[in-house]
Amino acid sequence: MALLKWPKPSRNGSVSPEDAAEGRMPLMEHLRELRNRIVVSLLGLVAGIIVGFVFFDPIWDFITAPYCSLEASQILREGECTFAIRGVFEAFLVNLKVAAMFALVVSSPLWLYQVWAFVTPGLYRNEKRYSIIFLAMAIPLFLAGAALAYFVMDKGLAILLGFAPGNAVPLLEMDDYLSYALVMLIIFGISFEMPLLMVFLNVIGVLPHATVARHRRMVIFIMFLFAAIATPSTDPFSMLALALPMVVLFALAEGVMYLRDRRSPADDFSHLSDDEASELPEDESPLDLNTTDPDSAR
Fold first, then answer.
1. H or E element that contains 94
2. Which residues of the chain have pLDDT under 50?
3. Would you list the DSSP string of 148-161?
4. Among candidate residues 63, 83, 60, the one with its CA nearest the CA of residue 73
5. pTM over 0.85
6. CB-CB neighbours of 200 under 10 Å
7. pLDDT digit string (tens) for 114-142?
8. Which pLDDT score, from 0 to 100, does residue 142 have?
């Protein structure tokens, strides 16, 4: 991938439209384009934050629905979900965090397009094709992981709050719950991207299927270990809810890698030692000709 393709400077120092479309721009032009795209992305985020402030109540109701479905959330006020506020500025900061989360999700098509438009001119044709496919698959996978986290949060909270003694009253703070929900959504979403990363590494020739097959058991063990450590609730239900889909996606990714390597097998030198030379082709090369022979030299 060549992000900077240097053109021949013109007499007036300008860049032709053809060169700009193919990514052949001077460094300062690339920096100006990057600045403009960052400004556009930030404007989209600011607009999303304003909308998030205006519609804070329905957004907050949606985020807190897993906790409010538990009986423990209605101990202080029967039939009403309650949260505790410890600091003076906590309510405002929670409003700001919720609006920022909403803006990041809503404006994602805009800032993803800005990133794509900045990188695309420097990509080759086959890189553009692969990147479009993986980008189209990455967003649904992340949303699927976040949706799974949303639907299992109430089970994890119920298990954790169930360990409280009978005379204890749960006073969950707004900021603590928001941090818990945010971590769950991000971890589940990113975890669903790992199999896609494996396929991408296989496509560019970095990770062959044979390597994955040799370490399959270790990879599955690491997935369960990662799920146990990464889930903030530390309950077995959330761990299994994250680990089992990851194993299924890993199996699907391994199947894709197997079919791709079988269709276009690559040279595998993993069985050779570091001191052993690979076999060379037996075809004659022009260098193999006898240069001492005058006829061959001509």
1. helix 90-106
2. 1-13, 21, 23, 267-272, 291, 296-298
3. HHHHHHHHHHHHHH
4. 83
5. no
6. 19
7. 887 777 776 667 667 777 788 788 888 88
8. 84
Rounded Cα–Cα distance for residues 40 and 109 (Å): 12
Paired residues of 84 in beta bridges = 173
Tokens (6 digits) for 98 = 């919720």
Spatial CB neighbours of 54, under 8 Å, sequence gap ≥ 6: none
Summarised one tens digit per residue, pLDDT across range 161-208 is 777 777 777 778 888 888 888 888 888 888 888 888 888 888 877 888
User: What does the pLDDT read at residue 160?
Assistant: 77
Gap between the Cα atoms of 230 and 288, Å rounded: 59
Q: Is 112 exposed, middle or buried (0-12, 13-18, 19+ CB in 10 A)?
A: middle
Cα 292 to its chain centre, rounded Å, is 61
Location of structure tokens 């804070």: 56
What are all long-range contacts of 127-135, with beta carbons under 8 Å and residues at least 24 apart? Answer: 127/1, 130/200, 130/203, 130/204, 134/196, 134/199, 134/200
How would you class 31 by CB atoms within 10 Å of its CB: exposed for 0-12, middle for 13-18, buried for 19 or more? exposed
Biggest alpha carbon–alpha carbon distance for the chain: 104
- The amino acid that residue 296 corresponds to is S
